[in-house]
TrEMBL record:
Keyword Ribosomal protein in annotation: yes
UniProt keywords, alphabetically: Mitochondrion, Ribonucleoprotein, Ribosomal protein
Source organism: Euphydryas editha (Edith's checkerspot)
Gene3D superfamilies: 3.30.160.20, 3.30.230.10
This protein's GO CC annotations: mitochondrial inner membrane; mitochondrial small ribosomal subunit
One example of a Gene Ontology biological process annotation: translation
Annotated protein name in UniProt: Small ribosomal subunit protein uS5m
Family per record: Belongs to the universal ribosomal protein uS5 family.
Length: 429
């Protein structure tokens, strides 16, 4: 150990001895550092090369491996809560350059110094926007027409027509989002990965409509895929009188059951919100649908489309039964109207006794909708209601009599018209 120390001392002393022998004035007056030329060596590292913003980001951010495992959820969202009303250290009213805060300490080989930059007239407006964006996380505001089923969530919102295919464009089409959800899939090499699944329906409101499902890593890509698939799988549906379905029907998919009822004009759409969006895409305006069983959204959509495709026109029903199809409507005072006639009509002898002749029971495949029991009104058990019924008894059948007169004679007339025919002529004049 002594020999090693001695050799190191000799190595250090050699250049000093050389200088002492070469320049004799160093021996008397010591070392004169002003006459020795030196070169500056800049010590560059991670901390003086980057500004404060990137340094803080390196401390608070999540690594790629951590992001894959689900760490740092919401890290991209700005959550700064500054006690100084959004002011950032290094940025103030005066446009100054602060090394280490608003700029790195060293830029290339140049050591930056504190200096005042030229004035910017739009600087304050930019600062206010920056502080507003940092102090509060504001969601995207939508007009009431553009909102979906629940605020600014995607389900229920419109995303426009599908992308054109070649030279053909989807003019008059509109696409509504029915479902947008994130799926977590576990993989061997990547671990837990997140995908998005979207389900949409598109239509022109005139009988053409279709639905599609799309999956992608990002939500906009999944919506675009679903929209374009729905545009490629359009189906044509016939609409009765331009406002409703041809008849009541029952449809099911999986454990989802739907009972659909035809309604008069002006009734509206009283059904599940997904079925309502489908009806608007097709052009159906009046409908009632009762949902039973599972409320899986994809099953609801598939079941409703299957039911619409299986419905038959009045002429097809008349040809199936080989009987006249007669309609009774309340707005026509239940006056019978023949809506379809077959090419060949069966006689009474050809109709078996056990055949279903009720129209609603036939189109519903002998299925019955469960209805709650109706209880009597509270006033029907009181004595004054019995008095009312006795007074009303002489008038209670007038509506039925009017209907029977229309059916038999085609008009409402008194039994005195046959006895006094001149009275009828006077009234007509």
């Amino acid at each position: 150990m002594a020999t090693k120390l001695f050799s190191i001392r000799n190595v250090i002393n050699k250049p000093l001895n050389f200088l002492m022998n070469k320049v004799p004035q160093y021996q008397t007056s010591g070392y004169n550092l002003k006459k020795i030329s030196t070169t500056s060596i800049t010590y560059v590292n991670f901390f003086n090369k980057l500004p404060a913003e990137k340094l803080w980001k390196s401390v608070t951010s999540v690594s790629n491996a951590g992001a894959k495992k689900g760490r740092g959820k919401g890290a991209g969202r700005i959550r700064i809560r500054d006690l100084n009303r959004g002011q950032i250290i290094g940025i103030g009213k005066v446009n100054m350059l602060w090394p280490g805060l608003s700029a790195p300490v060293i830029r290339g080989r140049e050591l930056l110094k504190q200096q005042r930059l030229p004035d910017d007239p739009e600087r304050m407006e930019k600062l206010i926007k920056l502080r507003d964006s940092m102090t509060k996380f504001r969601r995207l505001r939508l007009s009431p027409i553009e909102r979906g089923w629940s605020g600014s969530w995607m389900p229920g919102r419109s995303i426009g027509a599908p992308d054109p295919v070649g030279d053909e464009e989807f003019t008059g089409f509109d696409t509504k989002v029915l479902q947008l959800r994130s799926l977590l899939i576990m993989k061997g090499n990547l671990g837990r990965t997140r995908n998005y699944q979207a389900m949409v329906v598109t239509g022109n409101g005139q009988g053409l409509a279709g639905f599609g499902i799309g999956k992608a890593k990002e939500a906009p890509a999944a919506l675009r895929k679903a929209k374009n698939r729905a545009g490629k799988k359009l189906m044509n549906f016939e609409i009765y009188n331009g406002h409703t379905v041809f008849h009541d029907f029952f449809t099911a998919f999986g454990k989802t059951k739907i009972y659909v009822q035809k309604q008069n004009e002006g009734y509206g759409l009283k059904c599940h919100r997904a079925i309502k969006e489908i009806c608007q895409a097709i052009g159906i305006k009046d409908l009632r649908a009762k949902l039973e069983g599972s409320n899986n959204l994809q099953h609801i959509v598939k079941a409703f489309f299957i039911g619409l495709l299986q419905q038959r026109t009045h002429q097809q029903l008349a040809e199936e039964k080989k009987l006249h199809l007669v309609e009774f409507r309340a707005e026509n005072e239940n006056y019978p109207v023949v809506v379809a006639s077959p090419s060949q009509v069966r006689t009474k002898e050809e109709i078996p006794k056990d055949e279903t002749l009720d129209f609603i029971q036939y189109v519903m495949n002998d299925r019955v909708i469960f209805r709650r029991k109706k209880f009597p009104r509270f006033y029907e058990t009181m004595p004054h209601y019995q008095i009312y019924l006795k007074k009303y008894e002489k008038f209670r059948n007038h509506e039925k009599i009017r209907l029977n007169l229309k059916v038999e004679y085609g008009e409402i007339k008194s039994f005195l018209n046959d006895k006094y025919p001149e009275e009828k002529e006077v009234k007509e004049a």
